[in-house]
Amino acid sequence: MKILLVDDDRAWSNSLKDELEALEFEVIYESDADNALNQIKKYKPDAVLLDILFHGENKGKPTFDKIREMRNPPPVIILTTTMVDTYKSEDYPGAALAYPKGALNPEDEQTYKIFADKIRGIIEGADDIDKYVEKFKEIGIVVGKSKAMRDVYRMVLKASETKATVLITGETGTGKELVARAIHKFSDRN
Q1: Distance (Å, rounded) from C-alpha 44 to C-alpha 121?
Q2: Across the strands, what pairs with 53?
Q3: In this predicted model, what pLDDT tens digit does every residue of 57-91 receive, in sequence order?
Q4: Strand, helix or coil at 105?
Q5: pTM over 0.90
Q6: Are 141 and 178 in contact (CB under 8 A)?
């Protein structure tokens, strides 16, 4: 699972990055909140860990809002320190979780395992079939909720994010034209 960590505290972030990589995550680190969207587009992370304060300035909120406006945004976990007491969930609608940095203790590896489990749960929850079904309902294409169809929905959404040529094969009557229309509809080329 791929994670984008956006935080200006390099030492703390390197420690978290090392711990999460030891727990089998791929972690991309970005210290500048203004560059978070570029990193999301470049690396397509499964989740974003986003700090709120950057050099004493709340850059987390505008960055969070820009991420939420993206097509198929990754789940965002808000990291907090100084704003733990003043963090308001209504300011971050759609945030997957707000997690206090102080809960991660370098002397206690168990705290990182607990956090990693929460991240995995959020990423797996983001792969909710209802999210895909709703997107396909928008364009009038709903054919099922089986694992095979969930895989098709996932492939359609991934293909629509690229500029690559897509070859769709299959037996007559399996829905190749519907898949082609869905890829086109969800792409920037629509």
Answers
A1: 18
A2: 58
A3: 788 889 999 998 887 788 999 888 755 555 666 77
A4: coil
A5: no
A6: yes
